[in-house]
Write a structure and sequence with these properties.
By secondary structure, the protein is α+β, with helices and mostly antiparallel strands. The protein has one domain (about 5-120): Trna Endonuclease, Chain: A, domain 1. The chain is about 35% helix and about 35% strand. The protein is built from three helices and five strands, in the order αβββααββ. Strands 1-2-3-4-5 form a five-stranded mixed beta sheet, sandwiched between helices. Strand 1 (about 25-35) and strand 2 form a beta hairpin. The longest helix is centred in the C-terminal third of the chain and has 22 residues, at about 70-95.
Length: about 120
Amino acid sequence: MAPSPTQATGQHSESRAAAWLESQGLRVLERNLLCRAGEIDLVALDGTVLVFVEVRFRGSASHGGAAASVNRRKQQRLLRAARYFLPALARRHFAGRLPPCRFDVVCEENGRLQWIQHAFMEA
């Protein structure tokens, strides 16, 4: 089944973000991890830090912008999904050791990418 126009735009934005993060020295390990708690768009490695990346697209900033769309509720969903996937990621990429982690957001607005490192933290 073909993706909807919104899904196609999201996939394109995620691909752009992944390529851009790799050009900045990160290594993308996983894409689109989905569980009942939510979805992790990208999981990347920045040195020894495991980075959970939320990718947000907005055609314009007229409704608060892409970064503003990662509200507290969305952050909680991302945290729950990351907790779910972390044990398997640690086994797969860190020989079972739990690595230091962070949450980043990559926003695409008006054709430009903005990378917000340490966008939020677990409370």
